Structure formats: C-alpha cells, structure tokens
C-alpha cells in the first residue's frame, strides 16, 4: 500500500526521470524534490521540458524511467492509484479550463461532491470559502464567460483548492493574461505561499519567482541545469542561466 | 383544365387523421428518446480504446447510414417474424426507427464529443473525477449543446421518415391517408391535408426541442445566447 509520507519526507520527489516523445528526449534524468511548505519555481527556455516535468508529477504524462514519489504515491508505477494521487495534487493550467456550462459555484462544488461524496450544503460553504480566498465571492453564481481572464484563473485556483490538495502545480498560469490582470493572480499565489501551501510552478515571471520561490530549478535541454535558492537568479553560475536571466523574462 | 377540390368529403374523416397524427408523434417520441440513448452510447463506444467495441459501433453506424430506412424496417419486421417473435407493428416501427436514428445520432454526438477541448477533460482528470463522471458532468451536456440544432433536425427528419412505416401497416399518419384516399377517391385533398399535418407535427416537435433546450442549457437562458 502507498502511505502518505511522514513530515520529514519531501512532498514531491523526482529521481532521474526520463521521458521521450518519439525520438525527442524531453526529460533526460531530471531530479528535484519539494519539501512540505516549499515553493519551487521551474524556469527555462521554451521547449526545455518544464511543462512535461510538471505534468509527470500528476501523471498526465507517463515517464519512461526514473522514480516519482508524490505524497507517498509512486507515480512512476503503472499501478498508481490515480484518483488518490489527484486528490492530493491540485493542478492549474495556463488556459483556466473552467467548465463553461457550470456556474463558478458548480465548478467548485463538482469534485468535492462527486469525488469525496461531500454533502451539497457543505460543498457550497466550501465554495464560498475558497472564493473569498481568491477574492471572488461576488462571482459565486456567474458563469465562466462572464468573468475576465484573471478572474477565471483565480476561480480555477479556487476550484483546485476546494479539493484541499497537499501540493499545487501551476503551469504558466499568468501567461495568457494581460499584464494588468497578471498581478491579481500572482497575489493569490503569493497568499497561498504565505499560508504554507506546497507549490511547484512553471513561470517566466522572473521577478515573481525571485520574490516567492524557496528554490529555483532551471531546466535546459531536458536536464536540471542549475538549481539553488532564488538568489541564483541574480548571481547565476552557468552561462546558460546567465544568458537566460540576462535576456530578461522574455516570454519563453 | 379544371381543378375540383372537395375537402369536406375528406375532412369528415378528421378523427382518423388525428389518430394517425398522434401515432406518428408517439413513434417519433419513443424513437427519439431511445435513439438518443443508443446513439450516445454508440458515440461513446466509438471513442473507447477497446477496439472490439469501437469496431462494432462503427459497423453499426456505417451499415445503417448506407442502407434505406424501408429496408431496415423490413429487416426488423421479417427478422423478428422469422424468429417466431410476434410484436405489434408499432413496436417494430419504434425498434426500426430507433436503430436508424441511433446511427445518425452517434455521428452527430461524436462530432459534439470531439468539439470538447482537451483541456476541459484534463482539468476534470486533475480534479480526480472518474471516466464516467467526466462523461456525465463535463462532456455530455456541452457536447449536446454544441450539436443541438443538428440533433433536433435529425429527430424531426425521423418523424417525417416514419411515414414509411405505413409499409408494415403501423397506423400512423401516412397509413391513415392511404386508407382514406382509397376510400374516398380524393387522393389529392387527402395528401394536402396530410402534408399540412406533417408541417404542424414538425412545428410541434421544434417547439418541444426549443423548450427542452431552455431546460437543458440554463446558461444560455441566463445569458440569452441563442442556440
Ligand atoms: N504530447 C507531446 N507529443 C510530442 N511532443 C511533445 C508533447 N508534449 C511536449 N512535446 C515536446 O516536448 C518538448 C518539451 O515540451 P514542454 O511543453 O515540456 O516545454 P516547456 O519547457 O513547457 O516549454 P514552454 O515554455 O514553451 O511551455 C517540446 O519540444 C515539445 O514540442
Ligand atoms: Mg510549457
């Protein structure tokens, strides 16, 4: 049986993870770990494998080799309990992916009711609570299309939070947004970090990463090329990271 | 050249016309409900990874779409008879129409399923919803919504096509008309009345689907988006 990790063990750990799409080797021995309450930022050029690494954690991609342990689940094994894994992991995508035919409240209550068997009234209380957390309580009964991009993304974060995950994964959650809407989403994530949520986020908001991340993983050609505390962004050691931060936080 | 129409002679048979029209509507209703179910299942089946199920669904859909409805009706009618099974003409007609419209529904629903963005399904998977729950809560309604006009047209077409059930003497509208015109020798008048009745039945069905749409798609009702 897969048991939840004791508090000393990392929430997420990747060890020598390999992943290819056909002949293209996208992850070439990736290793990193995220401790409880830690915020890890995955950065790197476009195509360096950041999204793939993130998706492997929630088993949206199956790895070819190596080991991934998430909240005690052996994600690399074929017999991993997907539903249990995904109750422990929340994932938010660049394109929000709210369910268009459901109100924001219904978007949020669906999984707690359907997956955890929560009573409707309790789920509605929970929906209100997580919407307050992201500053959207007045949008409870709106449909997704009535919300701005930033609001939709915050609602998507709230929907994930309602499942009370042990770790949250974010894949470039602000890169579809106008600059003025980016801030409101980043603020929500900042608050989550302050509340002690364990997070792995792919981002190209370098200023944000510097401010919030406990650790930076810089990926280059499918490998962890440089890793360390946020300070590596200001004093990188490898020429690749130097160049990457030097070119500014260009859209990757 | 003179055209002499004598509607009263035909119209005094109105109870028969009415009964035929009601039966046609009943045929259409049952075949629509059952066909929608069958077609949706076949569409889901075609999308599964099980190649046996997917193959069977494909054979079903393609066979039906490439054979005439009348032949399908005869196949069900004589097929059941040769197995020694006795069913009323109405039951046979519903069965044949269901099988027929199910195949077209499957094709339409498949298009609807394919129109659901991959990201929607991934988001649902990420929330730990099961395969069935994803179909039920996330895919089905938006898919139906996307193809609703095509679906409802198909069901209205089915109602019109049910006129060939007169061939197995189901007492629907066209069968009634055939009977009345041979009785009154007023064929033209009879079929004019029947045509008008079919138009009315079509309008009734379209109104029904419009109302059903309001029920099924509350978002459109709220936001005032037309279908
Ligand atoms: N499903 C897939 N099938 C084939 N190739 C893929 C697939 N997903 C990703 N790739 C390829 O793998 C490589 C890494 O992709 P990935 O999305 O992980 O990069 P990324 O670092 O997230 O880039 P970006 O910053 O542009 O999002 C790319 O070359 C991409 O084209
Ligand atoms: Mg990416």
UniProtKB/TrEMBL annotation, chain B:
Keywords: Cell membrane, Membrane, Transmembrane, Transmembrane helix, Transport. GO terms for cellular component: ATP-binding cassette (ABC) transporter complex. The keyword Cell membrane applies. It is found in: Cell inner membrane; Cell membrane. InterPro entries: AA_ABC_transptr_permease_3TM, ArtM/GltK/GlnP/TcyL/YhdX-like, MetI-like, MetI-like_sf. It comes from the Bacteria. The chain crosses the membrane at residues 20-44, 190-217. Residues 21-209 form the ABC transmembrane type-1 domain. GO terms for molecular function: transmembrane transporter activity. One of its GO terms (biological process) is amino acid transport. It is a multi-pass membrane protein. NCBIfam families: HEQRo_perm_3TM. PANTHER family: ABC TRANSPORTER PERMEASE PROTEIN, MEMBRANE COMPONENT OF AMINO ACID ABC TRANSPORTER. Belongs to the binding-protein-dependent transport system permease family. HisMQ subfamily. This is Polar amino acid transport system permease protein. It comes from Bradyrhizobium yuanmingense.
